[in-house]
Structure formats: structure tokens, C-alpha cells
Amino acid sequence: MSVQEYLEKHMLSRKIEEAVNAAVRAKAPDPVLFIAGHMRRAVPAVITRVRARQILDGHGAPAVEVELHTNKAVHRASAAGAGAPEGAAADSAGDSERRRILARAVADAVRVINDKVSEALVGMDPQQQAQIDQAIMDLDKARHKAELGANAMLAVSIAACKAGAAEKEVPLYKHIADLVGKSAATLPVPAITVINGGKHAGNGLPIQEIMILPVGAKNFEEAMQMGSETYHHLKDIILEKYGAESSNIGDHGGFAPNISSISEGLDLVIAAIERAGYNGRIKLAIDVAATDFCAGKKYDLEFKSTKKSGKNFKSADDMIEIYSQLCSEYPLVSIEQPFDKDDWEHSKKLTTLELCQVAGDDLLMSDPERIKRAVNEYTCNALVLKINQVGTVTEAIEVVKQAKDAHWGVMVSHRSGDTEDSFIADLAVGAAAGQIKAGAPCRGECLTKYNQLLRIEEELGSDGVYAGENWRTASTS
Ligand code: PGA
Question: For the Enolase N-terminal domain, which residue ranges apply (predicted)?
Fold first, then answer.
């Protein structure tokens, strides 16, 4: 092909002339940069390939990382865990065996992504999130996310979402808000872990987490300031009361003093809030994760103890008594997973008392069918959204809408041992969730979410609204 033919084929003279004219019209201070940007925008982005690799998550366990290439850039995403190793084999395995199971699942997912997923997505427009997610789901349909694993699907879906935002030249949270069909931006109230127990710590505390919600902060930045000051005062109080060995941290970065009762933990946190000077401006939440200590129809509050007193084997109705008492004695505004994952009856009984937010985690599994049932039966009144249980960005947005339509609270949640991907921060803002749960102000995989929210708030300036006291009802217009 001659030079002339090449120029004509690509209409280069006309395109360059148009770009030069646009730079002149705009009186661009740096015309070369302007022309480069103008011409780049004239070429639509298309996905050219998807590559996956194994990385390590916050537990040092294998996880899937994805790089989605377009003709313009590369976009990276990862999702916690490997997805596949649920079930008896993984549950009964020790840590090293579990790691091997995860590694096999991740290796399988990497192969499928590099081969089938990449082939299916090549040529697609990264702005078309719903079409991309449908293509991912179609590959896996018959196997109910078993072949790819929900986490691997999610990593591809998130990488595509990042590519879509880049192509639109808007921040990720803004692109997500567009996908949700909303316009305003709401900064969530952080549910900051300060004490860990349950399966997340080696202490005697049966419940998994005690969290603080700085609902009285004027903005997200102040909320994190209040949260981290309280966290550090709590450390001092624990050191004074129980000694240095009790200030070790648990799975989400919360402290894990060797306490065994919920009220002992709440008292410590209240003392820390008072010492920090935030009385009345910080509320409390607990994640009971009761499925982990449900035995038959009873709840074993000493499930981690080798010397059981036998006095702490509670019925579901006893648990309701305990929760009612706690709500009357403390500024406790949210209880997550208060009963076994299939105890619909008692969850409903507690929710109906209207003592506080009752948030469904294992009960709902972020599953639209379970959410539908819970909405109809009023089994709980808030969704704990773990997006790697859902599988794709589009499906995650759908379940947020489902919960919002029912006037539920929505708590976007990390996973324990998450990766350093901060996507859920943008999701919480774009979908106006109102609440985000990402662990303590400690450990990189937790801070990456909170720090991203600090950046978003700064970027939004006066357009950003902190959910604050509206943490349960936040919504975008
Ligand atoms: P999980 O816990 O990832 O271990 O389920 C997360 C949470 O519920 O906080």
C-alpha cells in the first residue's frame, strides 16, 4: 500500500485537521496534548483480551487477579478468595489443605478466564456492563457459577467496570451511579471493626465483631478520624486492663482481648468512645455470625472454650432476650446475623421488635431469591452485600435495588482476608448504600477501601453528602 493509499484509507488528513481545529477553538494551552486526547477519544475502546493470574489475598491464600486489556489501556481487579472451596471438603480441611483446595480452584479459574472468558469478551465495548456480565454468566450458566467460581467472575466484571469508567472519563463511582440510574453521590457511614471474636479471633468472645458507626460525624473524613482515635484509645484501655498480650489483633484488624461476654466488649468500646470525647456521636453494631455457634436449635456462647460451664447454651428465645437487653443498655443500632443462617423464624421475631437494624448475612447470602423471601416475610431489614457471593457488578446492583425498594438498610461488606482491590468503596458511593463494612482502621486490605472513600470525598467536594444519621435510608436522586 502506498503512503497516499494509507492516508486515504484511514482518513488521516481529515481527522488531523479536525483535531487541530478543535484545539484552536478551545484555545488549548498545550495543543499537542489536546490533539492527542481528541484523537484518542475518536477511537472507541474495545476489549482485546483478558488475562488472569493467581495472587495472594489478605489471608495469604490464593485469589484470582484479572487484567482486562482494551485497545487503549489495561484495567486490573481482584476478588477475595477463590469461590469454589465451599462445602464439606473445604470446611473440614485444615488451613494447609484448605489452601491447596483454594489453589486448585484458582488455577482452574485462571485457565477458564484466559481461554473461554477472554474469547467471549473480545471485541465488546467495556461501557456495556450488562452485556459483558451476561456474556460471563452465559459461559457459566449451566454450572451455577461452579466452573468459574463467583469470585473469578466478579474479578472480570469489576475489571470491565473500571474499563467502562475510564472510557467515559468519569470516576468509577460515577460510572456505577450511572449503571444504577442515579445522579447524586452519598458517602457511606463506615462500620469500623474495633473488637474481633468468633471464628475471627482466638479469644473467648463468641460473636465475630463489635463495630463503631460514627453517624454524628460531619463528613466521611471526620468519621474515619473519630473511628481511628477511638480504635487507639481502645488499645490503651485494653493494655491497661489486660496487659500487652491482649492487644493482639484478629482477622479484620479488631483487637482480640481475651474476653468472653458481649457486654464486656461493649463496655470497653464505650469507655474508648468516652475517652476519645465522642459520646453520643458514635453508635455501636455487632456481627454475631451466629451460624458459627449454632448447635441444633441452641446457641453455644462458649463454643471456643475447652472448659464449658454448661450455662451458656442458649435457645433462640434466650438470644432474643440477650439482644433486647443489649439494645436497652447500649447505643446498639445494628445486629448482623443474630441467628443460624436458616433460622428465618427467630430472625423475623427479632426484626419485628424494631429494636435496631437486623442485617442478614448468611441468612441472605446476597441471593435474590433469599432476599425476596426475607422481604416478603420481614425476616430482617438490612442486606449485608458481599459481592463475591453475587458474581457480577450487574447482579450486585440488582440486589442493592431489591433491598432499597424494600426500604432496607444496605451494608456493603468486604470479606475477611480480602484482596487490596477497593472496588466496594466506589460501589458504596455509586449505589448510595449508606453503610460500608471494611474492617478496622488497620491492615492494608481494610484501609484500601477507607482510603479510597477519603479520596472520593475530596474529589466530590461540596457535591458529596455523608450519609450520617441517614445511614439506613440513604438514597440517590
Ligand atoms: P467473612 O466475614 O468474609 O468471613 O464471611 C466477613 C464479615 O461478615 O464481616
Answer: 47-176
200 has binding-site annotation: yes
283 lines ligand 1 (CB under 6 A): no
**Does ligand 1 come within 6 angstroms of the Cβ of 416?**
yes
**Is 416 annotated as contributing to ligand binding?**
yes
Architecture of the 179-470 domain: Alpha-Beta Barrel (3.20)
Of all protein residues, the one whose alpha carbon is nearest to atom 5 of ligand 1 is 415
Q: How far is the CA of 383 from the CAs of 220, 322, 404, in angstroms?
A: 21, 22, 9
Q: Tell me which residue has its CA closest to atom 6 in ligand 1.
A: 415
pLDDT band at residue 148, thresholds of 50, 70 and 90?
A: low
Q: Is the CB–ligand 1 distance for residue 421 below 6 Å?
A: no
Q: Is the CB of 287 under 6 A from ligand 1?
A: yes
Considering the chain, tell me which residue range(s) the CATH 3.30.390.10 domain(s) occupy. 47-169
Question: Residue 270: in which H helix or E strand, if any?
Answer: helix 262-276
Check: pTM over 0.85? Answer yes or no: yes
CATH topology of domain 47-169: Enolase-like; domain 1 (3.30.390)
Host H or E run for residue 55:
strand 47-56
Over residues 102-142, the pLDDT tens digits come to 888 889 889 999 999 999 999 999 999 999 999 999 987 65
Write the pLDDT tens digit of every residue in 395-411. Answer: 999 999 999 999 999 99
Question: DSSP letters along 408-467, please?
Answer: -EEEEE--TT--S--HHHHHHHHTT-EEEEEE-S-SHHHHHHHHHHHHHHHHHGGGEEE-
Distance of CA 203 to the CA centre of its chain: 26
Tell me how far the alpha carbon of residue 221 lies from the centroid of ligand 1, in angstroms: 25
Which of 334, 411, 413, 436 has most ligand 1 atoms within 8 Å of its beta carbon, as the pocket-test mutant?
Answer: 413
Alpha-carbon distance of 179 to 113, in angstroms, equals: 24
For ligand 1, say whether the CB of 361 is within 6 Å of any of its atoms: yes
Q: For residues 450 and 441, is the Cβ–Cβ distance under 8 A? A: yes
Ligand 1, atom 3: nearest CA belongs to which residue? 415
Q: Please list the residue range(s) of the chain that carry CATH number 3.20.20.120.
A: 179-470
